[in-house]
Amino acid sequence: xxxxxxxxxxKKIKRNKFLIRFTQLLIIFLIIFLWQFAANQNLINTFISSxxxxxxxxxxxxxxxxxxxxxxxxxFYEVIISFLIATIGGTIIATILWRFKFLSKVIDPxxxxxxSLPKVSLGPIIIILAGASTKSIIIMALxxxxxxxxxNVEQAFTSTDKNKIRLLxxxxxxxxxxxxxxxxPSNYANLINVCKVNIGLVxxxxxxxxxxxxxxxxxxxxxxxxxxxxxxxxxxxxxxxSIMASLMYYIIVFVEKRLQK
Amino acid sequence: xxxLKVKNLRKTYHTKNNEILAVENFSFNLKKGEFxxxxxxxxxxxxxxxxxxxxxxxxSSGKIEMDKNLKFGYMLQGDNLFDWRNIYKNCLIGLELxxxxxxxxxxxxxxxxxxxxxKDFKKAYPNNxxxxxxxxxxxxxxxxxxxxxxxxxxxxSALDYQTRLAVSDDVYKIIKQEKKSAIMVTHDLSEAISMAxxxxxxxxxxxxxxxxxxxxxxxxxxxIQNRKAKEFAYYYDKIWKDIDYHV
Lengths: 261, 247
What we know:
The complex is a heterodimer. Chain A is mainly alpha-helical. Chain A has helices at residues 4-40, 46-49, 52-64, 68-99, 101-116, 123-130, 134-158, 162-170, 175-186, 188-212, 218-227, 231-260. Chain B has one domain (2-223, 235-243): Rossmann fold, CATH 3.40.50. Chain B is 34% helix and 25% strand.
């Protein structure tokens, strides 16, 4: 059994954890409460700032119209597709660049230019080339996330421990063996980090795309809401987005923990 | 019997601004079962010689004669174990790369692990092992592919002093027991004298062989015991003067 001192120590950790969670919840409830209170007392203009009740009503109405999950699904679908292509495609391209240093050096300035270019500026071109469809939105999201994925993953791959590479080479390992036995497994943590960053970027890309062209999706709700001055709808969209984005983030954290076991 | 003959090895390094002659006129023969240590001031190209011998680097000129079927095992500074593989899997990496995961080889690795005190750690991960044990795993990983000659490139320099003494004793015993020939590069003179049958002393860059000492100790046994031999100080003094350290 543990000593009294150790028990106290464990208790302290537990209490601390509980206090953190409690305070976190308290803050969100306080915000919601104050917001609703201010709205009820006409301290704020609900036409501009909306209110928690109005947001919930909007969600319920959307649900009754059977469009709520449609919009969420559209955005979700676009995010997932872009995320998968950006992460997997980016990693594959980074692998090719890691393998062929010459290509990597040649392509380097172009990657830098593409990376620093504000991708929204490509919007009109993308729409003209790919049409006003989901395709454009996914391409937009890809542009935003894949460049930085390539840069980060290649950087991680090339900074793999040189001594370990020498070791494998002393066993006459071929490049593909070095990649699968060393580079990939030793960079799991880095790849997970890239995933975390990518989720955020892909969301930015998808919403930006939906602002430019879309007939459905959460970004469309926000855009539509702002055009008809229905701020309840805009706020609802933002709330939905933050829930979706954090959900995706926690899914990755969950996968990460699973892999670590 | 000489299993490896090196003649007039020469290596130049090229950088953008100049070329550096690292090693020149390096010749020596390695006998079967012999343990040779190479010592010299830092940056004299000791490690370069090992890289060239095991084919990771190319010599500028010179000749290396050996049997075509001779196999090398290379042990680098630090243990370089893969954290995501358990001890057993770490030891198999060489066999995996060479596509030689035969039953016979697996048995051999298992035997090595059992013999050298790692029986209960096969499923453990490197993080849970002490520095000395990790080094032993690293040696077994090298031995797994059944090399004829071991190249040890400052294998113990990442360890603290006490562990280092114990591990060098350990590694020495294993190498002798498995009847391997070995070439070790080190900057630790006592380590070289206590372990090697011959010590090659290199000069500063451009590096050439300054002297070769046949180490003859009375009552020669394990490295730790060898340090107590009465000739130990004599060799130490000689080599120290050869190297001619300046601060």
